[in-house]
Structures are given as structure tokens and as C-alpha cells.
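Morning!

As promised:
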Amino acid sequence: MIQKLVNEIKKKNAPIVVGLDPQMSFIPEELLNKYYAEKGHTLDAVADAIYDYNVGLMDAVSDLIPAVKPQVAMYEQFGIPGIIAYKKTVDYAHTKGLVVIGDIKRGDIGSTSTAYAVGHIGSVEIGGEKIYPFDEDIVTVNPYLGSDGVKPFIEVCNKEDRGIFVLVKTSNPSSGEFQDREIDGRPLYEIVADKVTEWGLDSMDGDYSNVGAVVGATYPEMGILLRKAMPKAYILVPGYGAQGGSGKDLKGFFNEDGLGAIVNSSRGIIAAYKNEKYAGMDYKDAARQATIDMIEDIRVNALS
Amino acid sequence: MIQKLVNEIKKKNAPIVVGLDPQMSFIPEELLNKYYAEKGHTLDAVADAIYDYNVGLMDAVSDLIPAVKPQVAMYEQFGIPGIIAYKKTVDYAHTKGLVVIGDIKRGDIGSTSTAYAVGHIGSVEIGGEKIYPFDEDIVTVNPYLGSDGVKPFIEVCNKEDRGIFVLVKTSNPSSGEFQDREIDGRPLYEIVADKVTEWGLDSMDGDYSNVGAVVGATYPEMGILLRKAMPKAYILVPGYGAQGGSGKDLKGFFNEDGLGAIVNSSRGIIAAYKNEKYAGMDYKDAARQATIDMIEDIRVNALS
């Protein structure tokens, strides 16, 4: 799967992913009102508005980008209708040729982690038939429970040619509370990075492993270090844009061939129409222009 | 909320919770076949069988226990129909007067953690109306992302009188890979435990905080230490039974008043009919007898 993502990144010449994290405040009011009129003030109405909004976004940017990253929490908050909108978003992204990175940050143990893995990137067998319940291509995974939590995902990756990004150093201000604490003179995130390298050894797909890592754009010096510590891991980089990271911070996340990292922006693209820089544009045009601007920023400041 | 759980524990005189973690291999074949006949080999059929099985289990044991703990992964693996079965299970548990601990192990940052929190233990506001999408009473939370990930849950707990259990020391064999690593001479799980105490200070509900902790039954010596380190945190104890923990290992998880911990068993109860000890019983009778036996084990070996 990582090779497929690399191919798409090369084809579009854009190592970026658009985060489909639909907060209610991002959805244009006319869209919400349309579905309120049809379905009342219900979870169904919001879920339909979210899906409509996502379709508009994907139609506007899918020729520019290799992948989308829906954040499942933003759907799960609207209960079952929200999760139906998540699944429809995954399916629509596939029709547009996009790689889907499900930002689910799941992590449990043994048979429970297996359940998450088969549900999201694998298949369940019912009466001899294989069914792919959510069918994302890649998902994010939380490592706090250790190998027992991660290996079931890797088994499914190997069986179904899918991928995972393991949280190593997250983009948020308090990520250091535990992740930066020193163990034998090295921060926890380095210990986790060592494990990512080890976990990924048997999951190579081209030059990279199907076991990648998440490292926040907000910590560029750690990006440099972790890029070297995990030579075969693709790095998913959140925190660009709204969270404070910019193109010049990202140089160290990439290898010299311009590969090795994929940078996410969510709010900066999907809610670009609320930014004065894109004033007067509708949400789709603003998202398209913000995507073009982001790609340019990364080409000029991170990759050259 | 924790006071409500304590009241129910006292009323039933049983500090235990039954984990509703329906693996397909646990569901009696006649139940699966009934729904296969109706709906074919589909996710819908399995989801209906799961819900039917759960109703049978809850009917069999609800007078004996204060709470159930559905593990959402086991539902999520069956896609949207699975999640519908999860939600119906939560609702049915409430009609039986049971406290519902959603074992979701979510954890993200900022607005994303808020989304998980409002979706599971809180409410979303749509056109001025409050809707509770999943409506569990308590959920489990992963702390790897630090305070940014946990505080949004606590805000919702305080607003809606709900609770969380934060993963501190999990029951699985590899939990030590990161959780036991020493930081300034103390293992990471102790550093997390300090944070649990700090996070819970403003969420007191009776003698305990709505911010509790997860500590595995498989690590009794750490249970003793963590019981003292987090005096106000209720401890949810997984790992009893099938994972190897037994009543005598659990003494140290409780305070002298017999409170402070609630012990989970999943497979040992819901699949008791597959255990030769309960041979010949149907799944409901076996679950009931296994619950009675577990309560007895804990009363005799952990609490006296």
C-alpha cells in the first residue's frame, strides 16, 4: 500500500493529504440549512450535510492530491448517522482515486486490536464470505499498549496490503508530557521510533514499509532526528497550517529524493473560505486555492 | 457518575463488571443461524445475533452486577451494523439499570478529543437541541497524547456528570514495553498515575473522582502501588479470568472499605458455556453461574 501512496504522490507531485475533519462550524450554513429543512435538527441532517460538504471538497481538490485523511472522531461525534457519513466518505474518496488514511488512532490488545484492524483495513469472514466493513487503505494506531496492540494491525497489513501510521511524536503542545520523558537518556518517542522500525521490517513495499509513523510538523528538530531514526518509515505529518507548522519547518521530515513524508492540512484547506486570504470564494474554490498554495509552499520551502 | 457506580456496587455487593465483547466464536450457533436464515451472510445478520446474545446475557446477570463494559472494537469490526448493535446494547443496558462503561480507548487532541467526548459521554447541540449520540456513562481513554487529549473528556465529565478511566497499566504481556520504562527512576505508568490524580482533582463525586484509571489484574504488585498513588481514582481492573488474574491477586487494588476497584471479566462470563466447568448449561445459565462464582471469588479472596 505504501508503494501505491508513493506512486500517487509522485504522479500528483504533491506530498500532501487533506484532512476531512468536518466540524459543524466549518460547514457552510446553506448546506446545513438545506438538510435541516429536510430532516429537522437531527444527527441525520448534520451527517448528510457533512457528506455533501466532503463530496464538494473532494471534487474540488482530488486532481491535486494523492490522499485524504478523514478524522473519525468528527463523524463519531454525530453517532451512527455520523459514522455512516464517514463510511460514505471513504467510498467516495475511492471513486476519485484517492488513498484513504483513516485517522482513527485505535489501539488495544490481542483479539481486540485484531477486531479494529479487520474492521478498518481488513475483512471479516461471515459464512465463508469476505466483507470489508470500513475499507480504509491506511489507519493511524496508538502504541501505548506495546507490541500486543500494534502487531495485529501489521498482520492485517501484510495479508491485505494495507498500511498503518503509528503515533510517535504528536503535534499538540502537551505531547511532551509523556512522549518527551527520558528513558536511559533518550526520549520515549525515540524508544517508540525504534519499535516502529522493528515492527516494519517484515512489511516492506518498495523502498518503504507499510508501517509508518506520525510526527508533528510543530516539532521540526524532532522531525530531522526521527527521519533518520526510522529510515524505512513513511512519516505522516500533522500540524501544518492552523496548528502552526509551515513549509520551511518540514525540510527535515523528507529524504533527499523528496519522499518519505506526507503532510496533512485539515482546517487550513477545508475551512479556507473562512480565512480572509480567500475572502469572497465559496468553500470549494477556497479549498482548491489553499491546496495549490500549500503544495507550492512545500515544494519551495521544504523540497528545494 | 462515580458515586452512582459506587452505590450500585454496594447495592449488588459485587465490585464487578461484565465485559460484553462478543467475538463471533462466542455466539451460540443457533443464534447466528437464525439471523443468517433471515438476512444471509451479512454484517446485519451478525450484528443482530450479537445484540440478541447481549440481551440474553444482560437478562441473565443484570440483577447480580452494577455495570457492563461493551468493548466497541468487537462491534466496530462489523462496520455500521456492528455499531448499531453497540448503541442498542448501551440503551438496553440502561433499561436494566446498569452503568455502561464504553471500552473505547479513544484519545486525540483538542477539538478532536472533544468530538469523541461529546459523542460518547456528552451531547452535541444541533439547532439549539441537545442530542446524546452514544450515551455511555463512562469511557476508557488513552493518555499517550497528554493533557490535551484527556482534558476535553474531563470537561464533558464535569458538565454532564459522567466518568472516564484512563489507561495507566494495561493487562497485556507487552504493556511493559513503554509503560514500565523508567523515567527519573520511576516507571512511565507512575508518571501517568500522577497525572490521573492531578486531572481528577476538580472532578470529585463523593469520595472518589470521576477520573479513574485502568490497571490490569495481571500485575498485582503494581496494583498495590497504584492504589496508593491514586487515592481518589476508582480502578477498572481488566485481565481477570481468561487473561490470568484471579481473586487473590486483586486484594491490593481495593481500599480497606472494599471500594476503589471494579473488576472486569469478559470471555470468562459471556463464553462460560464453552468452559467444561459449566458443561451442559446454555449460554445464559452458564454466564449467570460464572458471574456468581466470580463474585464469590472476589468476596472471599480479595475482600475478606
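Chain B is about 45% helix and 20% strand.

Hope this helps with the figure draft.
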